[in-house]
């Protein structure tokens, strides 16, 4: 199923209407949908409720902030193009008092606007038109990371099918052999593996690894990500664990 943002169209393959079985939360999870496009809201509400989510909807930023304070959602799906304020202002308003996961859902495709939303505190960014299955998968991942004892809880050891990262010992093992990393490579790896499945912006990576004075030297990231992939990925040309989100940042997938 694909939902578009500009033409207000929903296309659905025959027999693809989502069913409650498969991928639904074990306990009720409350989702706040913030979008002024009725067709988008309707599609999200139908799909989320079919999977037993509880859903609130807001057509503008002011209503979204009020509902968030009153209903305490477990995750927010937020459009940036709202009629009363920019979506980044809603993100900043939420981040003033809550760490609720925020997934931006927007037709804006410019890299600087995506980065601005991520730097404001968004956890993920999905561009319209979007695939419903992908959005729901990202929503489930965001909820898991935020849940007590979920992926958001810091792990001492991170394991993948290719390598193991021991955060306490600051060691990486691949196929039974320790992998030698430079201090910069290790720091970059550490930032990424501590937030599995979450998109980390280029600016955040640069500032955490190289320092607060850095924020635009994206060539540093390209060089060191290439080195990490050569050392840790089974196929560096087609990475499985260190994923590039063009113009935005990088994501670690265990």
Write up this protein.
Strand 9 and strand 10 form a beta hairpin. This protein is of the alpha/beta class and 254 residues long. Residues 5-23 have low confidence and may be disordered. The radius of gyration is 19 Å and the shape is globular. Helix 6 crosses helix 8 (218-232). It has two domains: 2-146, 3-Layer(aba) Sandwich (Rossmann fold); 157-252, Arc Repressor Mutant, subunit A. The relative contact order is 0.10. The chain contains eight helices and 15 strands. The strands form four sheets. The protein has a five-stranded parallel β-sheet, with helices on both faces. A four-stranded antiparallel β-sheet has the order 9-10-11-12, with no helix packed on it. The two termini are 27 Å apart.
